[in-house]
Amino acid sequence: GCSSLGELSIPDGVTEIGECAFMGCSSLKNIYLPKGLTKIEHDLFWECSSLTSIDIPEGVTELGLYAFYGCSSLNRVSIPDGLINIEDCAFYGCSSLKNVYIPASVMSIPGNVPDRENAPFNGCKQHLVIYCGADSKPEGWGTWWYCTDSDEISFAYVKYGYTRDAYLNEI
Q1: Is pTM beyond 0.90 here?
Q2: Are 121 and 91 in contact (CB under 8 A)?
């Protein structure tokens, strides 16, 4: 396992990191993802409970299933313009995440009834604020895409029509 891995820098030019590559790396606190990466594979950072922040590089178009599942210390994530798809449970259990910006390029986010437990932010805290580049909910976003607790039926606070600069100025 990789339970003692604390920091990692992946060189630019690496275009693919296999699914589950860092699964269970519970001490991983910092990672540099390379320019050229195109997808955050499913379960890539599953239970990386010490990971505090992540900058997803430009060129990534998809966040896979359970990509950051159980990253309970994750409090900052930078999602690039150009991202198109956020899969089921991508940020499930990221209970330290207080705000996130979703660019207008994102066309698909799951979370339809009765599958609300698959919403990408399920398991996040009720205080989560999601800033969106889109002016309103795009058609490809599930009805309950912003659900933060499928048992208690709670939702994140959503603010539409934000530019990245306006988001950065507000947080």
Answers
A1: yes
A2: yes
